[in-house]
Amino acid sequence: MRPVSVLAVAAEVFPLVKTGGLADVVGALPAALAAEGVATTILVPGYPAVLQALSGAAHVFGWRQFFGGSAGLLRGQAGGLDVLVLDAPHLYDRPGNPYVGPDGRDWPDNARRFAALAKAAALVGQGVAADLLPDILHCHDWQAGLVPAYLKFGGAVRPPATVLTVHNIAFQGLFPASLLGALELPDAAFGIDGVEFYGMIGFLKAGLALADRITTVSPTYAAEIQTPEHGMRLDGLLRSRGGILHGILNGIDETVWNPATDTLTPKKFSSADLSPRAANKRAVQEVFGLDISPAPILLGVISRLTWQKGLDQLLDCLDDLVELDMQLAVLGSGEDGLESGFTAAAAAHPGRIGCVIGYDEALAHRMQAGIDALVVPSRFEPCGLTQLCALRYGALPVVARVGGLADTVVDANEAARAAGLGNGVQFTPGMLRSALRRTAELWRDQAAWRQLQVNAMAQDVSWRRPAAQYAALYRGLLTN
Ligand code: ADP
Question: Whose CA is nearest to atom 7 of ligand 1?
Fold first, then answer.
């Protein structure tokens, strides 16, 4: 197989900078793709955390003036990854979050900051960085959306192929049209086949209009974003490009999420012997101040507490939960109303409902290893990672039938169970109450429940299959 060279372009990458699932994907793909004969270099902004982690760096290109200051490209390793760092202190040498300042507002120059990233990628695609001439520019989310625009409107002679992956269509990178010149784009770029979107400059829109291939992170989400309900005004464009739009599921890191070796959990276990889960369940009950007993179904939530995640629906079901002899452990942080809602629920139902407000990776591991079921009632969910972790740990996901949740959870209905299948519960969005009732019914047959756990743990949630699909997509572009 011909080796393929990819430049991934992203505003965040685990373990260097992370605010969400995007970073996990960008950080995990290179190792999985290497097994497919694909070599990946990641172009990232030179945030302080990236520059600190960078080792063995060589200066491969420089600008005296680049979007308002001097800048350079540094090629080296960071966090176990091959990276190309856009070192531009006037754009990226700032503390904290990559997108927002200490006041919690977007950095006022975000348009320039990520236009610079995209333009640098387009130039690397044309060979400015010695010894690095990628076959493919793989752009992630709106921050890299302008890459194909710089290639097209910058007059690139033999441009590399471009792939744009949408991790969440809710984030589109919209900026005033008056910035066109400052972003070093010609007037000709401001059209329906370019960066224009409802009178503004749309970074994601530009990428969707111009990339050679579009992917998103699950097949169901790929279909959903072509509808007015989920497309967030981009559905028409996506329908027109439906032939080059693919859904490729995310995976999780099987070494980090492995119940047989997980040192963050009290007792390790495998699907051959699930009995250690009982001690893990007790440990979760202790942390959340719940009554210690194996009998009730212990439901868990590990989530950002935002409208997208639909957890207000769970607050509406508290009486049912108690009536069905369920316990609930909630770990999350986010919107005030949801944080106070779950805090109040815990106070009103001591021993039954517990909540920890915050982000705690170790506690997330302990929960997955001990809860009986994980509730994910999202209104939309491009892929979702938390249900993949739950499957791996034998915590049955109870999920709304949307996006990646629909593609990864197999509902334990009669037909599925008769065929030895099923690994969780799916419900029509909004129907959480009846899903909880079905979960309670399934729990009554403990042997059948264990079979569902075994099925869940046998599911391949690794990066192997997704990486093979990305590699096939790249190779398809090169033979075109
Ligand atoms: P999203 O990216 O929309 O937040 P995902 O399910 O795709 O949702 O990924 C979120 C990841 O972060 C999951 O692995 C989830 O378990 C984890 N997570 C979310 N909230 C917390 C929290 N409060 N503490 C620890 N881990 C969390």
Answer: 384
More confident residue, 480 or 426: 426
- The confidence score (pLDDT) of residue 251 equals 97
**Looking at the predicted structure, is the pLDDT value of residue 360 above 80?**
yes
Angle, CA 159 vertex, CA 195 and CA 36 arms, to 5°: 105
User: Which pLDDT belongs to residue 349?
Assistant: 96
Structure letter (DSSP) for residue 225:
T
List the strands of the sheet with 200-202, edge to edge.
Answer: 174-176, 200-202, 196-197
Q: Calculate how far, in angstroms, residue 236's C-alpha sits from the geometric centre of ligand 1.
A: 30
Question: Would you state the structure tokens that stand for residue 46, as one six-digit string?
Answer: 């030179």
User: H or E stretch including 281?
Assistant: helix 277-287
Q: Which residues contact 6 (CB under 8 A, 6 or more apart)?
A: 33, 38, 39, 40, 41, 134, 135, 136, 137, 138, 474
What's the 385 CA to ligand 1 centre distance in angstroms?
7
In this model, does residue 20 exceed pLDDT 90? Answer: no
Distance 189 CA to ligand 1 centre (A): 37
Query: Ligand 1: which of 217, 221, 303, 307 to mutate, judged by most atoms within 8 Å of the beta carbon?
Result: 303
Residue 256 lies in a domain: no
Mean pLDDT of the 421-444 span = 97
For residues 384-404, average pLDDT? 98
CA distance 309 to 124: 38
Q: Does residue 385's CB lie within 6 angstroms of at least one atom of ligand 1?
A: yes
* Same domain? 220 vs 157: yes
**In the predicted structure, residue 480 carries a pLDDT above the cut 70:** no
- pLDDT the model gives residue 352: 97
Residues of the domain holding 52 = 4-251+464-479
Same domain, 384 and 473: no
Largest interatomic CA distance in the chain: 70
The alpha carbon of 8 and the centre of ligand 1 are apart by a number of angstroms equal to 23
Quick one: pLDDT at residue 156?
A: 82
Asked whether 386 lines ligand 1 (CB < 6 A), one says: yes
CA of 67 to the centre of ligand 1 (A): 35
Number of domains in the chain: 2
CA–CA gap between residue 312 and residue 2 (Å, rounded): 51
